[in-house]
Amino acid sequence: MSKKYVGKDVLKVDAQDKVTGEAQYPSDLKFEDYLHVKIKRATYPHAILRDLDVSKAKQVEGVVDILTEKDYPDLNKFGLIIKDQPVLIKVGEKMRFMGDALAIIIAETEEAALKARDKIEVEVEKLEVMSNPQRALEKDAPTIHNDIGDLCTNYIDPDVGKQNILMDHHLEKGDVDKGFEEADFIVENEYQTQHIDQLPIQNEAGYALYDESNDVIKIWAASQWLHDTQADVAQAMNLPKEKVRIIQTAIGGAFGKKEDVSVHLHLALAARHTKRPVKLVYTREESMISQSKRHPLTIKAKTGVTNDGYLTAWEVKVIGDAGAYASSSPAVVHKGMYHCTGPYNVQNVRGDSYAVYTNNTYGGAMRGFGTTQMAFAYESQIDIIAHKLDMDPAQFRYQNAYDIGSTTPNGQKLGKSVNLKRTIESATDLAQWEGEISE
Amino acid sequence: MKKQGRGMASIMFGFGYGEGFPDHSIAEVEITKDKRIKVRTAGADLGQGFLTTMTQIAAEVLKIDPSYIEIVGQDTHKAKNSGSTSATRQTFFSGNAVREAAEEVMGKIYHYGSLYFNSNHPELTVKDGELYACDECEKITYWELAEIVEQRGKELKAEATFFPKTYAPDRKTGQGEKIYVAYTFMTQVMDIEVDTDTGLIEVMNVYTALDVGRAINPQNVHGQIEGGTVQGLGMAMMEDQVIEEGITINADMTNYLVPSIQDIPNFESTLIENNDSGGPFGSKGVGEPTIIGASPALSNAVYDAIGVRIKSLPITPEKILNALEEKK
Amino acid sequence: MKISLTVNGEKRALDVKPETRLLDLIRDDLGLTGTKEGCGKGECGACTVIMNNKVVASCLVLAAQADGAEIKTIEGLGGKDKLHPLQQAFIEKGAVQCGFCIPGMIMSSKKLLDENINPSEEDIKRGLSGNICRCTGYVKIVDAVKEAAHKIKSGGEENV
Known about the structure:
CATH topology of the largest domain in chain B: Aldehyde Oxidoreductase, domain 4
Number of strands of chain B: 13
Number of strands of chain A: 15
Low-confidence stretches of chain A: none
CATH superfamily of the largest domain in chain A: Aldehyde oxidase/xanthine dehydrogenase, a/b hammerhead
Order of helices and strands of chain A: HEEHEEEHEHEHEEEHEHEHEEHEHHH
CATH architecture of the largest domain in chain B: 2-Layer Sandwich
Distance between the termini of chain A: 30 Å
Helix content of chain B: 25-40%
Shape of chain B: elongated
Oligomer: heterotrimer
Radius of gyration of chain B: 25 Å
Mean pLDDT of chain A: 97
């Protein structure tokens, strides 16, 4: 089935703009007479904000205004799935990680905004900082969010504290206990992954402008999902969606990091407040501290195997460090668990996953969405087992590999486009792998 | 001493949001009198080539050179929801929406063309932006047809939505009929060299076979394999945002290291193209899967090289040296 | 303070503050936004320009230090009507994804090829080691530099 344009190396339609420097990324746009915005952020990872004094900062020459929660007490929290992140922290309420915003500084120059930011006075009452999800799961651990509805099931391990569990998920396929009984041996290990920054080369940045004629706030900033960012900004500001217009620019990389709201909300508030164009560009440091991370996952994996090299049961326990706010955590951590066996036939699967609030920078979306971390665990298990069996790791994979009709840990029966075995054949061919593989 | 090792990883990735989430993409295709074909989509191009892929799909269906295609609507007030550029979903979701919208327009080209030529549909030939009823007959261009159609008060324009169904898994068992729209698979073999004195790892070769269904743009798919794998090697060997008591201690690119051009291996890759998935022209998504194999393949290669198993990422020289010390 | 410098062949006289970086001068004062900022610490290479025939991270150079200098930015290399062989090769070889690192990457490549029109793969990697790309895995960037060298040598297009 030959095609004329599909299957061909048609050159990137936007590449010419990018190689000449003409492509307009958010910070490249040109506005007349715009104001600079900077954000004053949390001074401690877990604390009650006792006082926020912007009076001295407002006196800095060139400062137009400084906005705090007092100026906008009716803002709603925002977030991709669960709305748990405050736009600005209120005096008397908690900051939960170092990226929390306390004040929006608007000034004629960047220098003035930075100078004013240093003059904002913050008083806090420090609370226990929970950087390790294991601590957050203890029954006596302080609660990070008191006002999130209970999203948990009744299937949580009774030995752990529920108060910081954002969401739990579970898998139960087949008869796992019987599966382990049928195994000739069991391999059990714990794996740990790290916080990763997606590190797109372009940091979060944008402009906004308030159009008084139709009461629309226009925001030029990158978003991986324009209409979702629009909805999140609009609900936080109690506006109808059509009053928030987001215009895409060239995007300097994302990898999941530009799914969450970043500059958008603070820009929208500043633009409407000043009725002038406003610009906010994050530094690399600010981007790394304030925007989402790849979740560190702690994965306990237990695999039952027969001496002839077939998998009889697989069990995982997954703890994901969700950080201070939900972001994509309600979807990431268990997506990892749902891929716990890798692409291999296992009839009996059990799993528990917990996304746990801590005072770290929040976990969100990054390429692979939990399954990247899980693959480190399942492919390590597979390799360990192959060596225990003294079997060619390619052959071991091949004889357990998914095919049409296989069922995933979710019990989803795969009906078409399952070409895993061909990938094993082709990759080993390319690598001139020693040893034959067969059914 | 330098020791060589070889590791392997096979992975799967269920793409789209899945789990019963109302995941969909809306797209619109319009032929205008000014010799443009406008494809309206709010989908974001993060660099992977979304705009190019949509251009190719529209050009293929409408049988016209891609240079006539213009992607418009990168604006909440100018296009409807195209869903997110994430979850490896845009080629499958927006690609299907663009394909369906373009097919609707093609149907209109045949309908109004057959009225114009006073012929039936099978007699019409549509090629390179023109249509005609016989080889020697008069030809009209899409643009002329758009003008004729406009005189009738109609448009050569159509909107389509791709909205496949998935189901929410049971909260207790995680079981469900269809959790993800489809899965992508990949196998990688990786050759490395470990310096047992310094603990440094050099990645020599990466061999990849990726189950793509069909590559809409093979060069760009290879770009995903290379880019995803190198990003995965960052995760495997060096990247670590260190947060101690809530404070990031390496919030800059001086202390948070990502792979540079000096760190890259040789690549040899094969695309498995069985044209058997539900995406446009049998394609499926590849963006995320390409990062997933790197860290286990590297870890397995380390074991093959020096007989130590590192179970935490990243696999730093320090961890290698400590593990070698323990093994003694 | 007043400084004068030549940017992309054009003489410019400007009044700058002592703390103004060359990057700010190029982007804000001259409006040449092809040069990007990725880290502000000279680590990522997105702000690379050629100054007095040397590759510099323009975020680490003060504008005052550029007084009297000759600067070349991506805009001085070639426009859409006449692409430089490097720009052409980056497009053809699929070396551009998000594109944010590309202007800096191309400026480092330009300097590399100005000095060595027959670079080995190792030469290319050394020449571009200060430019971070997060998207491509660099493979197609190496291909593009090789292709550009070939284009320039074969003289099909004038070396700008």
